[in-house]
Amino acid sequence: MAEAQPIVPPLVIPQEREGSRPFVQVLHDWIVTVDHKRLGIMYFSYGILALVIGGIEASIMRAQLAVANNNLVSPEVFNQLFTMHGTTMIFFAAMPIVFGIANYLTPLMIGARDMAFPRLNAWGFWMTAFGGIILYFSFVGGFGLYGAGSAPDVGWFAYAPLTSPAFSVGHSTDYWTIGLLISGFGSIATGLNIMTTVLCMRGPGMKLNRMPMLVWLNSVMAFLILVAIGPLTAAQLMLLIDRFLGGHFFDTQAGGSAVIWMHFFWIFGHPEVYILVLPAFGILSEVIPVFSRKPIFGYNIMVAATVAIGFISLSVWAHHMFTVGMTSYANAFFVASTSAIAVPTGIKIFNWVGTMWGGKITFTTAMLFSVAAVAQMLIAGLTGIMLAAAPFDWQLGNSYFVIAHFHYVILGVIVFGVFSAAYYWYPKVTGRMMSETLGKWHFWLFLIGFHMTFDFMHIPGLLGMPRRIYTYEASRGWQTWNTIVSIGVIFQALAVLIWVFNATKSYFRGKIAGSDPWDAWTLEWSTSSPPPDYNFAELPVVRSRRPLWDLKHPEDPDWKYE
Amino acid sequence: MSAESQVKGGSQKPSVLMPAPTAWPFAMAMGTALVFTGLLTDVSVSILGAILSISGAIGWFRQVLPHEQHEALPVEAPAPVPMTVHPKREVMRLPAAKEVQRAWLPLKIYPVTAGVKGGLAGGVAMAIFAVIYGVFAYHSVWYPINLLAGSLYAPSATPTIEDMRHFNIGWLLFATAMHLTMCLLVGLLYGAMLPLLPRRPIVLGGIIGPLLWTGLLYHIIGYVNPILDDRINWWWFAVSQAAFGIVAGLVVERHHRVWTAENMPLALRAGIEAPGLIEEREHGDKK
Q1: ipTM score
Q2: What distance in Å separates residue A323's CA from the closest CA in chain B?
Q3: Which of A463, A548, B92, B102 is the one with CA 20 to 30 A from A86?
Q4: A80: containing domain
């Protein structure tokens, strides 16, 4: 690295380390905070805790499936494990993590001091947190009044009529319903807050077409939250009415419809995939240009593709229901719409490659995770297109091929993106650098583990292994593949442990980061690390999409070219 | 909303008004959660939740009505922490981008018409090979055309080879429309892709690309068009694909490349004269 030169005198408050104050006072400050940065850290930490819990559940499932005819856990516990794993990972790991990143970075990136509704922001976080606590309280309280059931065991999308009182006795399903209902309110609050912040709180000169890509992608995510969470909330309320007040919305015996639940769930469920993956796309769009030393390729078309993905994602939900028996016209429509979403997604992949092309690439850990995520997005997209063809889906729907496909998206893109973000913004959040050596260990172990698990998971799916199966007979020919898949989990778990160790060690002993360790271009790097409570002493004036580049290179500013 | 105003008073240190911390959102969230949890445990939990929730709401309202409560955070004197800024570094550049600071690669692309013409010419080449195959293998020029229209057939009415050797106006129209559409789309793709392919674009785009496409289709065509899958001759298919790729590539390559308009404003690209829409630049600055 070349010698550092001071350019802008940053206005900072010396940051006090939490350890120097009594624990109770620190705890109090975190509970009453309305600061977007603290809430962002709380969201992120909560999500990581859930990620670890969901990961442990997945590990137990993989241990159960590693060999044929295994009975490590009972079938009932296995049902609870896959239900809790799916629910935890989607609603209490992935969503809080992306909300945390959006919360922390959105105001900093647009030159604002806080979110539009700071108190609503706090309320949203606590609703999410209490939703998760209610869900996990089911392990001890799920027996309820009827002495049956424990943790929910109806699968993460809880199809009717399995959720009806006749088939799901006790309160386990109610804990699932109420936990998600409560966290859904929190999600809507967060979506509203992000949207309002972006529309109303941008700093001077921060026009919409100058916003960082991450902010754009978070805005579309917020829009999708506002549109998509509503149907799920409505369905949850209807399910509560069915279960508590004798309603018949989903009771097929009394004129209700089980298929309606599917529509309600998936009209939320598929946009939900984009609620999670769009912020990951945003992370890639920030990290790749900085470590390629080039502006993002095709900013305008990237924004247009983002908006297109947002809209198209609202019209694809029933590709989850090809095996239900819809009309051929409905099938044809959802095949076409699902295939169409590959176009803007493909544009993004081309543009990330275009950004790297001709650039001087530095393979930091953050960049490695981002590049891997781009490659894995391509594979996940291709298997997605395969499953978008209804005849193909009829063969492989509800098989392990589908599980492999969506884990490729969730882990291969979203989790890789989150790890990239963790390495990239950790210096901003803590003021310290993470160890790159440990980071590289983390990356390669996780990459190897990921591909062992999810590449090979496609094969038992193609051989006919259905999802949610408790065990299988050796004669099926699935054992070798399942053993490899399960061994991959060990690598991933080890990698995550290294990451946690790295983050903890670096917090206390990491190299001091300075305000802008990556020579980056967006506004969050113009303030100290960690930023003061008010973010910027004076709100920065923005003239281009790379305000820090302009500041550092007055002889060659970007605004001349935009 | 957070306060934007800054208080700067005489000898006092400058300060910034920020929303005051409050526990009421926490209380209201906990109350709401308890109201619902009472459904699963005991009504007393719901009552406690309702009390907490209402208290939280009232406390929250009092935080923002009639005036939002703030705390003034002092802005301390700047500590001498330099922003880590590195001098502009020389980076390796592609030869094409030597002259340009911000390379929108590729700098030059083929016009859209090149893709259209390439697609049509490639389509003709592909059709010729397909027809030759039909004549040699089935003594009929209509066989490959009818085969292409295979996705129209109902599974219950699968035509015989004899049927497919004869002219059918419906099948001809469908196959022609399908062939034209696909050729135009792939031609456009070629127009966009060829400038991006390094070194030998015709080899990559004209031979390797079509062969990979053939391999992909070989595996999935059975799901999409089972009749085509049953009767197709994959060697001939690969040859006609390569014929398409080479001819389309050669036609596209014959066109002159034009500068990409990627980073120009939409108004400029659309050829609209719109003074005032485009920001004025400093004297002498050019795009």
Answers
A1: 0.90
A2: 15
A3: A463
A4: 32-560
